[in-house]
Amino acid sequence: MSLEKTYHYLSEEKRAAIMTLAREGFSGTHIARHCGVSEATVSREFSRQFPKSIPLKERRQRYEASAACTRYRKKSDYSARSDHLVRRSEHPVRA
After folding, report:
1. Could you tell me if 39 and 56 are in contact, meaning their C-beta atoms sit under 8 angstroms apart?
2. pTM for this predicted structure
3. Cα–Cα distance between 75 and 60 in angstroms, integer?
4. What three-state secondary structure class fits 10?
5. Helix H segments across 1-95?
6. 81 Cβ neighbours under 8 A, 6+ residues apart
7. CA-based Rg of the chain, rounded to a whole angstrom?
8. How far is it, in rounded angstroms, from Cα 20 to Cα 14?
9. Residues 24-73: pLDDT tens digits?
10. Alpha carbon distance 6, 85 (integer Å)
């Protein structure tokens, strides 16, 4: 039995559900239970898109699932390129 936790990215469908429920005024707890994720995950989704100076209630209303998905894709593309470059540098081409 492994005690190690695995990390799963939110799907576009879950992000859309978070956005819809937030705009309907549901609490972070309700949204998390409905989507099957932790409350911290929902809170981080709202925090990543806006500066901390914007109140949480406003962040929930302004949250855009499509923007979150786009940001994730760009980040994962960059990460994949970086991993590729690291792997290549570990095995230099011999002349």
Report:
1. no
2. 0.67
3. 22
4. coil
5. 12-23, 28-35, 39-49, 56-62, 65-90
6. none
7. 18
8. 10
9. 999 999 999 999 999 999 998 888 888 889 998 898 888 898 888 887 77
10. 25
